[in-house]
Amino acid sequence: MTNIAVLGAGKMGEALLSGLLKAGRAPAELMFTERFPTRAEELAKTYGIEHVEVAAAVQRADVLVVAVKPQDIEPLLDEIAPKIPGGKLVVSLCAGLPTKLYERRLPEGTAVVRVMPNTPMLVGEAMSAISGGAHAEAHHLDLVEELLSSVGKVARVPEGQQDAVTALSGSGPAYFYFLVEAMIDAGILLGIPRDKAADLIVQSAVGAAAMLREGGGHPVMLREAVTSPAGTTISGLRELEKHGVRAALIDAIEAARDRSVELGKAHEIDED
Ligand SMILES: NC(=O)C1=CN([C@@H]2O[C@H](COP(=O)(O)OP(=O)(O)OC[C@H]3O[C@@H](n4cnc5c(N)ncnc54)[C@H](O)[C@@H]3O)[C@@H](O)[C@H]2O)C=CC1
Ligand SMILES: O=C(O)[C@@H]1CCC=N1
To answer: Which residues are in the Pyrroline-5-carboxylate reductase catalytic N-terminal domain (predicted)?
Structure first.
């Protein structure tokens, strides 16, 4: 039995706990800390998982999953650093935070794995990228991969790529939602009721995603198959190119990557 404690049970913490339960983990193997009592009560009631104090979490859990906002990491590290016994595995879900931040603050030799998941974890469709820190061994990465495989897909990446990954798949769902929202607005403009437009677009998004993943097609070939000579699609695509949508997406993802780097640097300055 591997005891897992989630430190900070917000959106990602809840998604992980709920996903692990759905995947068959026993509630007794799981616990969480949460600074807001009402939130803690609600989660304990919904999932039947124990809400514990930080001191109990660091003693009892084999794996500590840090799921607070990057801006909240310092007080959390101040709290756990004096209490955490050696030999624990620390898994950080925090955007931008390098493994070395934890390694400097926690007992010498603590194994740290940095993960960038995304919110589709709630429906078992997460994309999580994992990277081991200086003391993470193959068995630590295998364990994290096993845990996260129960809530989606897992890729191993060098830690140097984590800021880029954060921008691509961590933030990625938000960009798809933004596109869906804009396409629904277009439906409204064209006189389609909102709920009908939403059905049309969401199913189109699901179908397109299934073709990308299961059909094994290249996005360019899939798009060409939709684009008939002198047809409707090419008229729309010309507008997208005219408005620089491709460049806008590339710039957006680059800006998200830069912000991830910045989040990490803020803590490095404190540490050096
Ligand atoms: N929301 C997203 O799409 C993604 C978020 N992440 C990362 O996951 C982490 C969590 O993000 P969210 O779940 O969105 O944030 P959130 O704000 O929903 O959850 C954070 C939770 O931690 C609690 N908390 C803060 N400090 C605490 C402490 N010292 N002790 C106990 N509880 C504490 C807060 O009360 C809150 O419930 C962040 O570091 C973020 O970068 C990673 C990938 C995707
Ligand atoms: O916006 C954020 O900072 C977090 C990390 C990736 C997705 N959401």
So the answer is: 4-96
Do residues 93 and 121 lie in contact, with contact meaning Cβ atoms separated by under 8 Å? no
Inter-residue contact 120 to 173 (CB < 8 Å): yes
Decide if domain 4-162 falls under CATH 3.40.1190.20: no
- CATH classification of 172-254, choosing from 3.30.565.10, 1.10.3730.10, 3.40.50.2300, 1.10.3720.10? 1.10.3730.10
Closest-lying ligand 1 atom to the alpha carbon of residue 117: 43
pTM of the model: 0.96
Residue-range domain boundaries for the chain: 4-162, 172-254
Distance separating alpha carbons of residues 152 and 169, to the nearest angstrom: 12
Per-residue pLDDT tens digits for 55-103: 999 999 999 999 999 999 999 999 999 999 999 999 999 999 999 999 9
Per-residue pLDDT of 213-248, as tens digits, reads: 987 789 999 999 999 999 999 999 999 999 999 999
In this structure, which ligand is nearest to the CA of 75? 1
Ligand at shortest distance from the CA of 77: 1
Q: Name the DSSP letter for residue 236.
A: H
User: Which of 71, 166, 253, 259, when mutated, tests ligand 2's pocket best, judged by the most ligand atoms within 8 Å of its CB?
Assistant: 166
Contact partners, residue 246, CB within 8 Å, separation at least 6: 240
Distance 181 CA to ligand 2 centre (A): 19
The residue nearest atom 5 of ligand 2, judged by CA position, is: 95
